[in-house]
């Protein structure tokens, strides 16, 4: 079974159409927004949809998303604790 962090990297690349990025290039602790991968608010919305569809996690508070989407590690940790799928 694929590690959750590797699975997340693959899904993020697919959902956000990051054709020039490979999973190996994404560090688990690198920031996803700002200076890291440089994702933006539209990408954040896509990640919220991804959490809902793939893991059954609904984010009611957008401010919580900022904490969750800090890095692959923080996303994986949150998913492991809150997933319903």
UniProtKB/TrEMBL annotation:
InterPro entries per UniProt: ACP-like_sf, PP-bd_ACP, Ppantetheine_attach_site
Keyword Calcium tagged: no
Entry keyword annotation includes Phosphoprotein: yes
Keywords: Phosphopantetheine, Phosphoprotein
SUPFAM superfamilies in the record: ACP-like
Carrier domain boundaries: 2-83
Pfam families: PP-binding (PF00550)
Annotated protein name in UniProt: Acyl carrier protein
Organism whose genome encodes this protein: Marnyiella aurantia
């Amino acid at each position: 079974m694929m590690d959750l962090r590797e699975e997340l990297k693959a899904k993020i690349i697919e959902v956000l159409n990051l054709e020039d990025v490979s999973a190996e290039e994404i560090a688990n602790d690198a920031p996803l927004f700002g200076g890291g991968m440089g994702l933006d608010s539209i990408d954040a919305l896509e990640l919220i949809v991804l959490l809902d569809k793939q893991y059954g996690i609904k984010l009611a508070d957008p401010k919580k998303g900022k904490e969750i989407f800090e890095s692959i590690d923080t996303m994986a940790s949150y998913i492991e604790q809150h997933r319903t799928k």
